[in-house]
Prior knowledge:
single chain, mainly alpha, 4 helices, elongated
Amino acid sequence: MGSAITQFQIIPLQYYILFCSALFSIGVIGVLAKRNALVIFMSVELMLNSANLLLAAFSAYRNDPAGQIFVFFIMVVAAAEVAIGLALLVVVYRSTHSIDIYKLDRLKW
């Protein structure tokens, strides 16, 4: 029997880099171009997930578990960002009846 071939050995590392770069670019465009706060949060999550995928790919490519540990910490930060961000979004919606980020000037004292 031969040695087991993992999925990361079949797909070249360059494909992961290109795919993660495209995902990250889509996330950046979503943050810069959209006015809806919910879409902006989703774009930030897309950027975090592209970084997670790239860290996992490098970790498997080098047979080093350090990248997977960083993925765990990024997932914790993403979960905290979602919890705090959605709570802030609910408060903003209750006071302005909109989640448009350009209408946040109504929240001035």
